[in-house]
TrEMBL record:
Cross-referenced CDD domains: Rib_hydrolase
SUPFAM superfamilies per record: N-(deoxy)ribosyltransferase-like (SSF52309)
Residues spanning the signal sequence: 1-20
Protein's name in the database: ADP-ribosyl cyclase
GO molecular function per UniProt: NAD+ nucleosidase activity, cyclic ADP-ribose generating; phosphorus-oxygen lyase activity; transferase activity
Keywords: Disulfide bond, Hydrolase, Membrane, NAD, Signal, Transferase, Transmembrane, Transmembrane helix
Organism, as annotated: Capsaspora owczarzaki (strain ATCC 30864)
Family under the similarity heading: Belongs to the ADP-ribosyl cyclase family.
Residues passing through the membrane, by range: 279-303
């Protein structure tokens, strides 16, 4: 369990940069990636016009002068509709949430929307001549106006707000605490721009999934404040689940049946009743992956037995019942 947790934490830490905690320079070939992603997977009719709308806001501009409102033309072009009952918000769980959402098939995160996915993982900021490929200023939030300055964070503020406004039906949030802090942080984009912008007449229920690190669990720490905030904003009482099976299934599926992650998945199984349409495909996928691995391991062991019996034995064979 210890190593599973450490891997979990390492994965989360690695993936934590996308919302602009650090400030790398503009991604090389930004225009080509943007337009390519748009042509490949979006419903946007004119990808070059969409790029132009983005480029006009960011290029040749002081990044710290760019705010969320600057991206209105970009988001007017992006189709942001999210299937009913599939919107999934996240905080501190980026590495897992996108495996879980499966590019919008299982759940729909902001990064699965047309407006979000063309930008996911990319970095950019303007300079006096086009883009700054060396580094970008980190950006800051004016707490009086509740506005982010700095191109990238301003963009994600707009994307988060837009995504939250149109989430409909049963929505969910996957919370992790990669650095051992609170799962629900009042400085997170989820707390600042997503929960407050959900529409009470559209959202009918909310499920909270917590990837615990042994400290905060549903009903403790910051998750108490979360329940209060959800009641306050939406008038709903959320359902809360610690270490939901679906997250353990993904760990298991990615790492294979004999791995520590699968033991973690078995040993720490707590009942968390997922809607059947989500839980069953996941469980089947994990079982199938596990079965294939078991067969593969058996084949390897058989092969090793054959080799061992056809060669002079240099070491005693241990543990295979040979
Ligand atoms: C937006 O996307 C959804 C789902 O892909 C689609 O049903 C809808 O027609 C699209 N709307 C527009 C205006 O393109
Ligand atoms: C790029 O950004 C860094 C950090 O904000 C800044 O020091 C540098 O002058 C910028 N370079 C250009 C070419 O604008
Ligand atoms: C925040 O915005 C207010 C209102 O526009 C402005 O008066 C104030 O100087 C800003 N603060 C910072 C730190 O930029
Ligand atoms: C869990 O959180 C605690 C305190 O919040 C922190 O000290 C600890 O390092 C975290 N453990 C892991 C494995 O993330
Ligand atoms: C955020 O949480 C911290 C720590 O609990 C608290 O001190 C602070 O007042 C909170 N800020 C807001 C804006 O709620
Ligand atoms: C909430 O959704 C309803 C129904 O679509 C809409 O009429 C209303 O304007 C929305 N409220 C906000 C604050 O966006």
């Amino acid at each position: 369990m210890q190593s599973a947790l450490l891997m979990l934490v390492a994965g989360l830490a690695l993936a934590s940069g996308v919302r602009g905690d650090d400030a790398p320079g503009t991604t090389a070939h930004l225009a080509e990636i943007f337009v390519g992603r748009c042509f490949d997977k979006s419903t946007v009719a004119d990808c070059n016009a969409w790029w132009a709308a983005f480029n006009q806001v960011v290029a040749d501009v002081d990044p710290l002068s760019v705010t969320a409102a600057s991206f209105d033309p970009y988001f007017a072009i992006a189709n942001f509709s999210t299937p009913v009952d599939k919107a999934m918000f996240w905080s501190g769980s980026q590495y897992y949430v996108h495996q879980l959402s499966d590019a919008g098939l299982r759940y729909f995160t902001m990064e699965d929307t047309v407006g979000g996915f063309v930008q996911n993982g990319l970095h950019w900021c303007g300079s006096s001549s086009g883009y700054n490929y060396t580094s970008c200023p980190p950006g800051f939030r004016n707490t009086t106006t509740d506005t982010w300055y700095g191109a990238e964070l301003a963009f994600w503020q707009h994307a988060s707000t837009t995504f939250a406004r149109q989430a409909t039906g049963r929505v969910s949030v996957l919370l992790g605490s990669p650095y051992g802090g609170s799962a629900y942080r009042n400085s997170s984009f989820f707390a600042l721009y997503e929960l407050p912008n959900m529409n009470t007449s559209l959202v009918t229920a909310i499920d909270v999934y917590v990837i615990t690190n042994g400290t905060e669990r549903c009903g403790s720490g910051s998750l108490v404040a979360l329940v209060q905030d959800i009641k306050h904003h939406l008038g709903l009482t959320p359902s809360c689940y610690d270490n939901p099976d679906m997250v353990r299934f993904i760990l298991c599926e990615n790492n294979g049946a004999p791995s520590a992650q699968c033991q973690f998945a078995n040993e720490f199984s707590e009942s968390s009743d997922l809607p059947a349409d989500k839980a069953v495909p996941l469980a089947l996928g994990c079982l199938l992956g596990g079965a294939i691995l078991v067969i593969a391991v058996q084949q390897i062991l058989l092969l090793r037995k054959k080799q061992a019996s056809s060669q002079p034995m240099r070491q005693p064979l241990m543990g295979y019942g040979a």
